[in-house]
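Pipeline run #58 for the internal structure catalog. This entry was flagged by the ingest filter as a single-chain record with no existing model, so it goes straight to prediction. Upstream metadata was stripped on purpose; only the residue string is passed forward. Reviewer on rotation: M.T. Logging verbosity set to normal.
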Amino acid sequence: MISYCTNVHPAEDVDGIVAQLERYALPVRERLGADRLGVGLWLSAPVARGLAEDAGARKRFRAELDARGLSVYTLNAFPYGGFHDDVVKHAVYRPEWTNPDRVAYTIDCVNVLSDLLAEDASYGSISTLPLAWREPWTEQDDRRATEAFGQVVRAIGGRPIKLAVEPEPGCVLDTVADALGWLSGRVDPEYVGLCLDTCHLAVSFADPAETLKAIAESDVDIVKVQASAALHVEKPAEAREALAVFAEPRYLHQVREFSGGVVRKADDLPEAWTDLPGEGPWRVHFHMPLHQAPAAPLSTTTDVLRTVAAGLPGEPHIEVETYTWSVLPDAGDLVGGIAAELAWAQANLVTEGVSA
């Protein structure tokens, strides 16, 4: 099943979410000519808590989804709230997995997804942050986070819900290799696995085929794939003006450079010009629309996404996650953009179609 992630929409109450689904998801489904459309819901912590505490509210929300032909297979529980504030940056990584608020939010999402899950779903997935931003992080934090995952697994209680940890550049679990090393032998693999974000994977300059091989050889499953593309800059010195329009103030845009056989790091795009030598290609953590490439000298990493999709084991959930439409230069019509991305994904990533 392929879904689009609703964290692109700013609503942080149930009425607002329903209004956004009416305004965007319904016309996207109609434009695609699909009987059902998958939506990867983002619920802020207060919304998740309210729904978790009110079975009647969950039933009414499910009815609103069904009335619009929308199916839920996955939730994005990475952002806790305020994902469309004027400045988000490092706040998106809080609360960390050492904080009881993160545990409570995730358990609320488990309880909500259990009632919203599509009838044909073999399981439901919930993606989450890779523990925290990389610093500070201690051995005590490791122990606290391990226990926190255990609490969530106990709360799942045998229901067909799986947690998907999403490695991201700059975090404690920066790469897929970091995530495999931390998760293996530490969590119950029946209920906790990997969310493979292909933008993040591309930014790390990891080889996608080798990454899939390493995952297959581990005891960690791919629970969810976030189908996304990063900005690629072959010659940074020739692209400064083109990149300037992507250095916006809301989200963090980590940059990695591959030069001299080493991956060099900058925590945000404005810092890259001073922190990186500019001798090799850059990849920028800026989720780009899948169906269109920016003008030269910029490009995107959809080749990484294609390689991952071609080699995926099993049938993990696929979620198109371009949350950056509101900060994209010349973004255009959002309904048209989401529909075009999903059509591209249907043609390039799966054969059974959007509503399968």
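catalog note: Confidence is low (pLDDT under 50) at residues 351-356.
catalog note: The chain has one domain: 2-229+301-349.
status: ready for reviewer M.T.
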